[in-house]
Amino acid sequence: MPQFHVDFKSLYMLKISIKTILIALNVLLFNTIISAQQVVEPANNPAEWSKPYQPFRIAGNLYYVGTYDLACYLITTPKGHILINTGLANSASQIKANVEALGFKFADIKILSTTQAHFDHMGAMGAIKKQTGAKLVIDAKDAGVLASGGRTDYALGGKVSSFAPLKADRLLKNGDSVKLGNMALVLLHHPGHTKGSCSFLFNVKDGKKTYRVLIANMPTIVTHERFDQISAYPEIAKDYAYTLGAMKKLSFDIWLSSHASQFNLHTKHQPGDAYNPAAFIDRKGYDQTLADLQKEYNEKIDGKD
User: What is the 8-class DSSP label of residue 264?
Assistant: First the structure.
């Protein structure tokens, strides 16, 4: 009858090794989860991004409620309001104060959206969503970056979130409408800056006139890498080309953008100015901005950036 010898010392050492490996894996998993949950907004941002700015009526039921440079827009209706963009995390209280200064209830915001899932436009979105209970609707192509709090962004991503991760209540594609009360905003898919960058086209009216408004996400280039080296976004060059072409064909009366500086807000309006929608009718400025961005894109493609 064969004899078997059990090496208890070896079994004990094996048991210790397995236990050590399991502990290490648990620590790694824990750290990964913690990293995914951390929100660290980038520091040393331009002062203009946080600088308070007096809210005002742009045209009809469209209002500016953002900071000096990070544009946030309130579109009011009898059934509640729509807020587009929220600036940095510290902008939540400013936006609330701006909305209330205009005579509207912050709690009446029913729909939230953004022109791009970057921290400088999404920073306060989580807090405002929680405070108001509003539904968040975004371009479907930014859903992944939204859910990761910016970690998976092809250009600005990293190991920690730069804004609070969120799940959208509705995902939109090009041409979809966002409706509330008497308003219908058409989402225009304008990818490049982010995979789901978008613009909004809609009508507002006052007692004298109806205005076609474009809130444009201008296709600025945020990466220093060559387009053909960005494996996380292989279609980036094609997307920028599409967006530039599509935006040149748009028709509107008034154009605005994600940053006040992009549409020269501070040369068109000063705090305390009277209501003047005509100040924002500026096709020449829009075309020139797109021409500059087209040049930037061409230089990027030619390797001259």
Answer: T
Q: For residues 64 and 158, what is the distance between their CA atoms, to the nearest angstrom?
A: 32
Q: Can you name the residues that pair with 136 across neighbouring β-strands?
A: 112
Position of tokens 């154009």? 255
Distances (CA, A) of 268 to 55, 120, 143: 14, 23, 34
Write 11-20 long-range contacts (CB < 8 A, 24+).
Answer: none
Give the tokens for residue 275.
């209501």
In this predicted model, which residue has the larger pLDDT, 260 or 304? 260
Q: CA dist 226 to 155, 178, 221, 230, 233, Å?
A: 12, 35, 11, 7, 11
Q: How many CA atoms does the CB half-sphere of 132 hold within 13 Å?
A: 26
Section 246-274 average pLDDT? 98
Question: Which fold, 48-301?
Answer: Metallo-beta-lactamase; Chain A (3.60.15)
pLDDT of res. 303: 81
Put the strands of the sheet holding 73-77 in their side by side order: 56-59, 62-64, 73-77, 80-84, 109-113, 135-139, 170-172
Cα 66 from chain centroid (whole Å): 14
> Token pair of 114, please?
């953004």
